[in-house]
Amino acid sequence: MRTVLVRSKELWSGVLFVTIGVVVVSMALKYPTGTPSRMGPGFFPLVLGCILALLGLIFLARAGVRPGNSLSGWNPIALVCVLGSVALFAALLEPLGLAMAAFVSVVLACAAGHERRWGQALALGVGLALFVVVLFVMLLKLQVGIVPSLWN
Amino acid sequence: MELIDHLILGFTVALSPQNLLYCFLGVTVGTLIGVLPGIGPLAGVAMLLPLTYVLAPTSAVIMLAGIFYGAQYGGSITSILVNMPGDASAVVTCIDGHAMARQGRAGPALAISAIGSFFAGCVATLAIMLLAPPLTTVALRFGPAEYFALMTVGLVMAISLAQGDQLKGCAMVVLGLVLGITGTDVQTGTLRYTFGIAKLGDGIDLVSVAIGLFGLSHIILNLEGATRRHLELAKIKSLMPSREEFSASARPIVRGTILGSILGVLPGGGAVLSSFASYTLEKRLARDPSRFGNGAIEGVAGPESANNAASQTSLVPLMTLGIPPNPVIALIGGALIVQGVIPGPEIISKQPDLFWGIVASMWIGNIMLLILNLPLVGIWVSLLRIPYQMLFPAIILFSCIGAYSVDNSTFAVWLCVVFGLLGYVLLKLEFEPGPLLLGFILGPMMEENLRRAMLLSHGDATVFVREPISLVLLLIALGLVIVMALPKARDKRKEVFSE
Fold this sequence. Notes:
heterodimer; A: 152 residues; mainly alpha; 5 helices; B: 499 residues
């Protein structure tokens, strides 16, 4: 029974939304609430936060009655590689320029797949990097450096 | 005849070589996005938004709208041939379309869906021409209370459409509203939910949210799925439907078109609602409902016409009320704002060339799509053979560049990471991100209209039920809530979604 509850989607939905609701409400309380005719910036979010927390409590209660579906397993490699690929692009774009950032990001993204063929990943990285440089910078005049800014 | 003058103006704009080119580019890219599994129209438009910044406003919207309705066409190819819906509105097409493909009737299914979409597109274009001008006069009578009530209807509708649990849909909408109002409060200048990050003062950008929730999170989930995906492509023998298939499809196409044109205009409605509604309607009307699910051509003809009609008429609320009824239209509205055009009732009177040019371009775009989809279907089918292994890194890269180019800042790319993670967690917990996005878009508008309405009524909340239009809208919303809560409707809903 306990293991069922720990993996229950309802339970974690409840935890998530109670947390979000509490954060939203506690921050909304710092903004002026105002009066009904002159609502302050805190009024609307305060109401929304309460609804979120309430919904979270309902999810928790339901989890107690019937835990519902269990969470399926997750694949940390896919998660880390995909989000890491985007994060690397964000981190490298300005210092290293579009070409390098695109290459690194594509190669890391490839690692998220089921087949890890490095040759293919490198080739795809080079190809896509060239493609986006030509398309976005040369044709569409996107304002971004192509090569590391130190070179200029 | 005013309508004729409008048509002539529209076609003069749409037939300029430049606009023809962007229309063609739009529908081609749209078909591509629709065909490729794992990328829907929303992530596609978000990704390609930067391509339009260098264009004139009319060309930009012509291209973006082309991507949107082109994706509806393309999506049906993938649904029928490999049983993989590109987005929620294509789910229905999979049921009978793929069943037909398994029986060796993929060709007729594709042909009927393209012909139905074409017919629907033409009628919907006409519907926009007739509907939009009178709606703008209604829109001018809308006060804050009416706007608030209208958005309430839209959000309730989005919840009722969400697959699975409606309480979860409700949670998504409310979370979306909170995310939507993040940033500087317009009336007081107070910074809300910025966590001290200066960049968040301008609010969260829709493109980052769309890419994170609809692009990245789905990629992660796809990669997490079965070890390797082998697409089983159904073979196309002959495209030509038989005479029986034609006559069986005619009425469903007409009914789907009417249904879609109406439902597309409703906020929160659009393509998904109309394809489900059309499927249910056809099944109800059929002499032998048991054929549905086993390759009934009516089940392809109706929904495919309906979703295409709806995707086109969903531009109407944006152009008349300034309210985007669905997230893709919101992105198009965002593109207009970047171009310095404020979506709303004044577009038609102040920039008739923009409005009528877009409408006329849709008709032209539909002809292009018919050619792209019928004689050239083989090209798209071969694209389905590109392995996902090579596809998803490209989608990720294009998404990053799309987010960056919104205001040339890597902050938007970081936001994509955050929303990618959020989307992943939500999908894992069986929350559907669609309603969140609608809440996100409508959040700021809803709050502003609520505050204005309450200010004008001196704090008297009964203003929402004293104004007749607002009262009617709120009653509609209430009716929807009651229907959702009824046990019978719940079972019915479960039945529809389980199909």
